[in-house]
Amino acid sequence: MSGKRADNGHEVDAGNARFAGDRKFVVALARGLDVLRSFRPDDDMLGNLEIATRTGIPKPTVSRLTYTLTQLGYLAHVERFSKYKIAPAALALGYSALAQIGIRQIARPYMQAIADHAGASVALGAPDRRRMIYVEHCFNATALMVRLDIGSRIPLAASAMGRAYIAVLPQEKREELFEDLAWYYGDRWPGLRKNIEGACEQVARRGFSLSMGDWRQDINGIGVPLVMPDGSGIYAFNCGAAAFSLSRDRLEQDIGPRLLDAVRQIRTVLNGGAGEWQTGRNRRH
After folding, report:
1. Domains and CATH numbers, the chain
2. Fewer CB in a 10 Å sphere around the end CB: N or C, the chain?
3. Assessment of whether the complete model's pTM goes beyond 0.85
4. 8 Å CB contact between 208 and 164
């Protein structure tokens, strides 16, 4: 396997290597952000060694970065355990970013309607290197599945959401991403690439991609991309649940068309029009 990965399953990020020789690229800033990025939603505290393992940054450098981030208020040092927690200053950045993503408020009623119909989870995600990060999430209380929430990350290469995102990337950006994924996944990459290319064909033909236990064996899902009309980026939606409750046939014949229609309506609202839900709400009020 040619890629480098931590033994605990967390990625060792070599994404900054492509900027070698770029005089405008500030390596120290990139590494500091990588330290913050290494914290996951289910983490309580991380030590310097854990951060070094996750990021691939040498431990002495990590120690200096965590000290600096602590002094600036982005990390909090828990002396009893000699570990660090995300601090309010970093949280404020995240909440500010979420507040600027207006699509969350527009999409939520459509997402919740599908989640309730499917008895499943519906999420809106944005790219985060080799993963998609949830920026909005709706679920039905009866859904039997992995509990994820805003800030959770799922793999680009194996998830319906990630593959839907890849499907609408410009060719040059897609090839750049493929080079990075090939480095990371090593011997696993040819099989993953074949599945991704199949998903891209699905999106081109039907508008959505499927993941039948590819990310987790007990989870089936479907993904639909959304290229923002204002050119601000690409998002993707997914709908997923336990495999026994979301069969391929149901995903293709029922959930896929519903999610695709919802995304079309969301795009209409983003373009300044009124979707079905907004029109109905206005009539009721």
Report:
1. 15-92 (1.10.10.10), 101-281 (3.30.450.40)
2. C
3. no
4. yes
